[in-house]
């Protein structure tokens, strides 16, 4: 099948490469000329395990091409995927300007009947709005489908090749057949392709992200109670998670959720509810708890140093919003580092792969280190903000010798408090009240 992808970011590039790998002819288009020029030279703009090989192999096989030309891209594909950004607007709603503008532009360019698929996360009713644009502007038969994306950054290729489920929002039987054929190679193990109406599909994506965010904020709120009562959230987590009705995942307390999806999607869903005269009260709290949680480490550091933070050297391990990605959009590290800089701290930062993104955010306000131990030299404290595996079993003896003051603020609870304290460090985790 001929496939066109508009928007070659995390979703578009990964999905385009996976469709090419399953035998389709794919063009990935983007307005970012530098990104496309780099992709044509084999330079992958994002870090995702397995992506580079996948892209290179399919480019070599002639199944995957890159372009900045909307016309030729639109005319290539029978199925056109919109993988465009839907960032947060000032009022919290999803900014649909990219999706609607590209839809208007595309409508003038069709050479045959098309299926347009929205992979972008869009509020309920967006597919209908795109369909109206098509009805007004083109005589070709153009159907518009909601097909939300559920990939996780850091495991995006794996998730796309073996998704838990595919959600397709359409009531058109012909489109159902085409979409089922397209996704068949990815669901050989029997995972379902769920057909539903467009609006339910659009809402399913927000519901999934909002529920996961709710789990995180719930645990963060309990973590604060643990600190007040002397309980340890990690014990509580294990006790809860072993109940199969609850499950082990997304129960980790920390410095709040970040990334390009959860914060904006929770806010957009709250906005959708308000626009429909309904108050999603749980989600408002989820959002508030998260905003507060992003500040928790700075408050702990402030308390520890009695507010005397001027010229204190703080080492930071982990900048990406989660491990296995270089994405720093809405990362908790940004809030923490900016908070500490404002209080007069000097920051020495390390991340296994997000340093170049960090440089574009903090510039020369932060010192950057390629190796984690180098960031510790002369540090008054270490803050762990992203739970990269390489931080989990460090050489505490070496760390102790490098640091000026032996204190660790563990924003992701990756260490055993007793073990760290036995090594001669002061240890502060999140919600770990019981072990002093
Ligand atoms: P991204 O910012 O990584 O990529 C979007 C791309 O679209 C960029 O390369 C940008 O240059 C390009 N673009 C912008 N305007 C364009 C235009 N007019 N024509 C062509 N290209 C244009 O975004 P992303 O993370 O891939 O997210 C895309 C959508 O998918 C969003 O709605 C997001 O919420 C959703 N989503 C993201 C993830 C994720 O983990 N990143 C997961 C599921 C769903």
Describe this protein's structure:
- The protein is α/β, with parallel strands linked by helices and 436 residues long.
- It contains 17 helices and 14 strands.
- A six-stranded parallel β-sheet has the order 3-2-1-4-5-6, sandwiched between helices. A six-stranded parallel β-sheet has the order 11-10-9-12-13-14. Strands 7-8 form a two-stranded parallel sheet.
- Bound molecules: nicotinamide-adenine-dinucleotide.
- The site of nicotinamide-adenine-dinucleotide has 26 residues, from helix 1 and helix 5.
Coarse structural class = alpha/beta
Poorly predicted runs of 5 or more residues: none
Bound molecules: nicotinamide-adenine-dinucleotide
Q: Give the overall silhouette.
A: globular
Number of domains: 2
Strand content: 5-15%
How would you name the CATH homologous superfamily of the largest domain? Answer: NAD(P)-binding Rossmann-like Domain
Strand order of the largest sheet: 3-2-1-4-5-6
Distance between the termini: 62 Å
> How many β-strand stretches?
14
For the record, the CATH architecture of the largest domain stands as 3-Layer(aba) Sandwich
Mean pLDDT: 97
- Major beta sheet, specifics? 6 strands, parallel
């Amino acid at each position: 099948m001929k496939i066109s992808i508009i928007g070659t970011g995390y979703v578009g590039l990964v999905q385009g490469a996976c469709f090419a790998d399953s035998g389709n002819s794919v063009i990935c288009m983007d307005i970012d000329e530098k990104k496309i020029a780099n992709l044509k030279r084999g330079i992958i703009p994002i870090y995702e395990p397995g992506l580079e090989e996948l892209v290179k192999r399919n480019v070599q096989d002639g199944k995957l091409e890159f372009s900045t030309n909307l016309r030729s891209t639109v005319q290539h594909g029978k199925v056109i995927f919109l993988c465009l950004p839907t960032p947060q607007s000032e009022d919290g709603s999803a900014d649909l300007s990219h999706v609607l503008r590209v839809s208007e532009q595309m409508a003038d360019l069709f050479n045959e009947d098309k299926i347009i698929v929205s992979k972008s996360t869009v509020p309920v009713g967006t597919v209908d709005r795109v369909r109206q644009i098509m009805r007004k502007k083109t005589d070709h038969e153009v159907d518009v489908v909601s097909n939300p994306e559920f990939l996780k950054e850091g495991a995006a290729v794996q998730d796309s090749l073996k998704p838990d489920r595919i959600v397709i929002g359409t009531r058109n039987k012909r489109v159902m057949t085409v979409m089922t054929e397209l996704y068949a190679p990815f669901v050989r193990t029997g995972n379902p392709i769920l057909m539903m109406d467009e609006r339910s599909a659009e809402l399913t994506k927000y519901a999934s992200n909002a529920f996961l965010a709710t789990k995180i904020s719930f645990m963060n709120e309990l973590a604060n109670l643990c600190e007040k009562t002397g309980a340890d959230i990690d014990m509580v987590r294990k006790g809860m998670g072993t109940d199969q009705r609850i499950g082990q995942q997304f129960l980790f307390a920390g410095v709040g959720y970040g990334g390009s999806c959860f914060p904006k999607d929770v806010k957009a869903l709250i906005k959708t509810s308000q626009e429909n005269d309904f108050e999603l009260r749980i989600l408002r709290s989820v959002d508030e708890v998260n905003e507060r949680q992003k500040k928790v480490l700075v408050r702990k550091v402030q308390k520890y140093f009695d507010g005397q933070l001027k010229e204190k050297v703080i080492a930071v391990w982990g900048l990406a919003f989660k491990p296995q990605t270089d994405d720093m959009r809405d990362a908790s590290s940004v809030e923490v580092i900016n908070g500490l800089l404002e209080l007069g701290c000097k920051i020495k930062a390390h991340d296994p792969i997000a340093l170049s993104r960090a440089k574009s955010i903090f510039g020369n306000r932060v010192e950057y280190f390629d190796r984690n131990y180098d960031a510790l030299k002369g540090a008054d404290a270490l803050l762990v903000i992203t739970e990269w595996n390489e931080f989990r079993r460090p050489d505490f003896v070496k760390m102790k010798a490098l640091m000026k003051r032996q204190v660790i603020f563990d924003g992701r609870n990756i260490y055993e408090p007793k073990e760290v304290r036995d090594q001669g460090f002061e240890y502060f985790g999140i919600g770990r009240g019981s072990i002093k």
